[in-house]
Specification:
This protein is α/β, with parallel strands linked by helices and 309 residues long. The protein is built from 9 helices and 11 strands. A 6-stranded parallel beta sheet has the order 3-2-1-4-5-6, with helices on both faces. Helix 6 packs parallel to helix 8 and helix 6 packs antiparallel against helix 9. It is globular.
């Protein structure tokens, strides 16, 4: 059997860190070798440091792991043996810590927003823009890193939007897009939105979310100039040039965001009403497919958590 790649999780005690651990338990390629959190948790076992928030039980393989500071330069830290770290750090501290890991040769995959809008950092959605990974070599050259790099994921609402818009943009082109979100309380993290603000209510604005949706969608759906050449010095992200207006709302639902999306196709010669109708139908079918997949995943998660009889 091939040796598994040693990985670490930064911010492992929080809600996002727990999701990382849930996905990494029993992984075929990765072995969780190091867990990092705040100095307050350092030296404790994971089960003592973390308040487990997920519906599935805390995986026993992580319970007795010792927590370490999120510092790759700490003496004897197991992070030095990790090739990859998954960062679930809060944006208030993520920036410098992630830079330190990358500069010491560690591949950083970050959930934080800090580096998303930098000119050499991909915002990756594998089914949408895998070619953006070509920017890593440029990032390493510009920053003088040998093997480390930073790749981020997008805001949660952006992920679903770009997956639906990508095939439409490829086939027909998008000129304008308006998106209204109805975002679950889980998206606010733990402890999240105050109960008196959200119970029987819709909060019609989420600070910072609208800018993320607009900036990230255009970057993810955009292109890399010179991505097919050997000239790294000329590489740059070119955002997709459609207009987008986002309006974000928080709703009293635990998990699962909903989006209402309207768009117009690029005006081109020969672009008929028939093609517009076909694109609208395609969009509806894509949303139905996403809904079906989400329902199947929820059912599988439910039955996997039931005790065996």
């Amino acid at each position: 059997m091939a040796t598994k790649v040693k990985v670490g999780v930064l911010g492992a005690t929080g809600a996002v860190g727990q999701r990382f651990l849930q996905q990494l338990e029993g992984h075929k390629q990765f072995e969780v070798h190091a867990l990092g959190a705040s100095d307050r948790s350092s030296g404790k076992t994971y089960k003592a440091a973390a308040r487990w928030l997920l519906s599935s039980p805390l995986p026993p393989c992580f319970s007795d792991m010792i927590m370490w500071p999120c510092d790759v330069t700490t003496k004897d830290t197991p992070f030095k043996e990790c090739k990859i770290v998954f960062s679930a750090l809060d944006s208030s501290v993520a920036g410098d810590i992630e830079l330190s890991f990358a500069s010491h040769g560690v591949a950083v995959f970050s959930n934080a927003k800090n580096h998303r809008y930098e000119k050499d950092v991909p915002i990756l959605v594998p089914s949408v823009n895998p070619d953006h990974l070509n920017m890593i070599k440029y990032q390493q050259e510009v920053r003088g890193w040998d093997s480390g790099f930073i790749v981020t994921n997008p805001n949660c609402s952006t992920s679903g939007l770009v997956v639906a818009l990508k095939p439409i943009d490829v086939c027909f082109g998008i000129d304008e897009c308006v998106v209204f979100t109805m975002q679950a309380v889980s998206g606010a993290g733990y402890p999240g939105v105050a109960s008196l603000d959200i119970l029987d209510n819709v909060v019609p604005f989420i600070d910072g979310e609208e800018d993320k949706l607009e900036l990230e969608s255009r970057k993810i759906l955009g292109q890399i100039s010179s991505s097919t050449t050997t000239s790294l010095s000329s590489m740059a992200f070119t955002p997709q040039p459609f207009k987008i207006s986002a309006h974000t709302n928080r709703v009293p639902v635990i998990d699962g965001h909903t989006e209402d999306v309207c768009f117009t196709e690029t005006e081109e010669e020969g672009n008929s009403k028939g093609s517009r109708g076909r694109s609208s139908l395609l969009f509806i079918l894509l949303l139905l497919l996403l809904l079906l997949l989400s329902s199947l995943f929820s059912l599988l998660s439910y039955f996997s958590c039931q005790p065996k009889r």
